[in-house]
């Protein structure tokens, strides 16, 4: 859980389908703590069985505008966002995250991991693609005791992967999601207020506009 639109909608989807959900957030040295706080309040509000935040420090590697002294791009149009891999990509982030989720899932004897990746309105991240998720799932069932001994065949669920941002928001509304609890900005102010100009803010605004919905975090 990042506390953003996608992970929040993904949690609501899983709960709607009757899963008992254990939510995991990663404090990985990102530029701000706003998303960690958002993930915790979303997990509590939606009724997760347990919420855990694991601290790791990807700043030691850097290489991203979210973990290094690299400026976050602002004011890019859709064409720019759809071209190439942006500097906000954190090297191997979803591989690190899914590996930690896999470890906890095996301890919990859980049969499923849900992740809110999206391959339509996304900013070029290679670890959000369907083929990546499929490859990780195959690896997970080869690399764990549960998989090798046949106790649990793990499935990675990506219910949002083929939806546009507008489609995700519409789905969330149907599921009763309160998006005022969420946080999306890559570069918020000291008070946690979204900048309104980074790729994540612009994709969020585009999604709400196309869905015909009001973003509760939008500036009046």
Characterization of this structure:
The strands form 2 sheets. This protein has a two-stranded parallel sheet with strand order 1-2. A two-stranded parallel ribbon has the order 3-4. The radius of gyration is 17 Å and the shape is globular. It has a single domain (5-211), classed as HUPs (Rossmann fold). The mean pLDDT is 93. The two termini are 28 Å apart. 39% of the residues lie in helices and 8% in strands. 36% of the residues are buried. The protein has 220 residues and is mainly α. Helix 1 (5-16) runs parallel beside helix 2 (34-46) and helix 7 (165-174) crosses helix 8. It has 8 helices and 4 strands, in the order H-E-H-E-H-H-E-H-H-E-H-H. The longest helix is centred in the middle third of the chain and has 16 residues, at 93-108.
Which characteristics define this entry?
220 residues, mainly alpha, 8% strand, two-stranded parallel sheet, single chain, Rossmann fold
* Unreliable stretches covering 5 or more consecutive residues: none
Distance between the termini: 28 Å
Shape: globular
Largest sheet: 2 strands, parallel
């Amino acid at each position: 859980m990042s506390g953003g639109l996608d992970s929040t909608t993904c949690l609501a989807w899983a709960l709607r389908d009757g899963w008992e959900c254990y939510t995991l957030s990663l404090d990985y040295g990102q530029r701000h703590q706003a998303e960690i706080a958002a993930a915790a309040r979303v997990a509590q509000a939606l009724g997760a069985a347990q919420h855990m935040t694991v601290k790791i420090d990807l700043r030691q590697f850097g290489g991203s505008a979210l973990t290094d002294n690299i400026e976050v791009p602002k004011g890019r149009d859709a064409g720019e966002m759809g071209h190439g891999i942006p500097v906000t990509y954190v090297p191997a982030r979803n591989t690190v995250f899914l590996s930690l989720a896999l470890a906890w899932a095996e301890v919990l004897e859980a049969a499923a991991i849900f992740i809110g990746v999206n391959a339509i309105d996304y900013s070029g991240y290679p670890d959000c693609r369907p083929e990546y998720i499929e490859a990780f799932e195959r690896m997970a069932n080869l690399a764990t005791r549960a998989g090798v001994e046949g106790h649990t065949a793990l499935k990675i669920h990506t219910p949002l992967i083929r939806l546009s941002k507008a489609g995700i928001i519409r789905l969330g509304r149907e599921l009763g999601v309160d998006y005022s609890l969420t946080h999306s900005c890559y570069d918020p102010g000291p008070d946690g207020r979204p900048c309104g100009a980074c790729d994540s803010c612009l994709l969020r605004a585009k999604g709400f506009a196309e869905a015909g919905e009001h973003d509760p975090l939008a500036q009046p």
